[in-house]
Amino acid sequence: MAALVGKGVRDMLKRADFMTVPRRQRHKKKWAATEPKFPATRLALQNFDMTYGVQFGDLWPSIRVSLLSEQKYGALVNNFAAWDRVSAELEQLSARDFVNEAIFHGEPEPENGQTAAPPPASWACSPNLRCFTFARGDVSRFPPARLGSLGVMDYYLMDAASLLPVLALGLQPGDTVLDLCAAPGGKTLALLQTGCCRNLAANDLSTSRAGRLQKVLHSYVPQDVRDRNRVRVTSWDGRKWGELEGDIYDRVLVDVPCTTDRHSLHEEENNIFQRSRKKERQMLPVLQVQLLAAGLLATKPGGHVVYSTCSLSHLQNEYVVQGTIELLANQYGVKVHVEDLTHFRKLFMDTFSFFPSCQVGELVIPNLMANFGPMYFCKMCRMT
After folding, report:
1. Which residues are within 8 A (CB) of 27 and not within 5 positions of it... i.e. 6 or more apart?
2. What pLDDT is attached to residue 129?
3. Catalytic option among 310, 358, 378, 381
4. For the CA atoms of 267, 98, 128, 155, what is the dihedral angle to 10 degrees?
5. What is the 3-state secondary structure (H, E, C) of the chain?
6. pLDDT mean for each 10 residues of the chain (384 residues)
């Protein structure tokens, strides 16, 4: 009875408060004209709870809380700036160059006075990359990058796991390189930092995103270097690249559009879980297969491709790789070999948390102590 009275009083007070507002000034909230009832970020989390809860089992609660927490960044040193000074300044912040630290510690030890056998060529990382991160559990932030004395920015802040596909690509001096889905430009910039690109084609279907890529290149890479490396920025349909420039490239990076899992949990803008984009989201694996197939067809026989996403979904990761290899074998007679990246996982396990059970490729999973990723990457060699 008391509850009913209380409810009656609250209703009366609401009506009294509403009645004090002149009718012409009253405003009834219209959901359709304002925000959606279910934000895309909430729809994304519901989707992930259903799918990733099954896919990752007991690991999902840990991954989930990490995805919802602030991510960590790495500082990719700009080799076209005063890189030695920049590196020294980053070291003073107690950050460490995870790339060169891992490569140094990963060199084989000589046994019984004998010279250690060199690792296989397929194990080689792309050279000349310096990326600083804070240690596990250290949630310090890097200060914003600034313009250096040489007229270009000192470093580029990025999810450090995003550098792994570029490292895995194993660039060699004089390579012709294609970045098929290049914007916003962090991986393209890293490819240029290696100093290995004889030609670099950087493509993105979206002209606005290609514009962002151009801004990154202008901020970090001197004009003469862009000219010398013959950097070409285009906005073509990447699915047709195999027809446009087949059998040309030594190295191809295919960093495809995906559900961008971390972004989808934090940003409403450009969120693929918006109800209006449901069909687009469902068709993502088809688009990803088409782009990877085009990247492999653009590669010379004997050349290498790295496929990558920032999604945890095996439908967008391993299944796309396996489906594309089957497609190329059946429709084009092209044989593709997936390279084992177990050594790569061991090399960088001090910095990143890797999922131990990928069928093909490697997956960095977010972890509160090392909150990078997600980042999936798989390296392939076109055999024929």
Report:
1. none
2. 98
3. 310
4. 40
5. CHHHHHHHHHHHHHHHHHHCCCHHHCCCCCCCCCCCCCCHHHHHHHHHHHHHHHHHHHHHHHHHHHHCCCCCCEEEECCCCCHHHHHHHHHHCCCEEHHHHHHHHCCCCCCCCCCCCCCCHHHCCCCCCCEEECCCCCCCCCCCCCECCCCCECEEEECHHHHHHHHHHCCCCCEEEEECCCCCCHHHHHHHHCCCEEEEEEECCCHHHHHHHHHHHHHHCCHHHHHHCCEEEECCCHHHHHHHCCCCEEEEEEECCCCCHHHHHHCCCCCCCCHHHHHHHHCHHHHHHHHHHHHHHHEEEEEEEEEEECCCCCCCCHHHHHHHHHHHHHHHCCCEEECCCHHHHHHCCCCCCECCCCCCCEEECCECCECCCCEEEEEEEECC
6. 43 41 48 67 97 97 98 97 96 97 76 59 86 96 94 97 98 97 96 95 94 95 85 95 95 98 96 96 98 98 98 98 98 97 94 96 97 98 97
Two structure tokens written together for 220: 């970090």
Long-range Cβ pairs for the range 80-83 (8 Å, 24+): 80/150, 80/152, 80/193, 80/220, 80/221, 80/222, 80/225, 81/148, 81/149, 81/150, 81/152, 81/153, 81/154, 81/155, 82/148, 82/149, 82/150, 82/154, 83/130
Feature table: binding site for S-adenosyl-L-methionine: 181-187, 204, 237, 255
310 is catalytic: yes
pTM flag (> 0.85) = yes
Cα separation of 88 and 223, whole Å?
26
Which amino acids are annotated as binding site, given as ranges? 181-187, 204, 237, 255
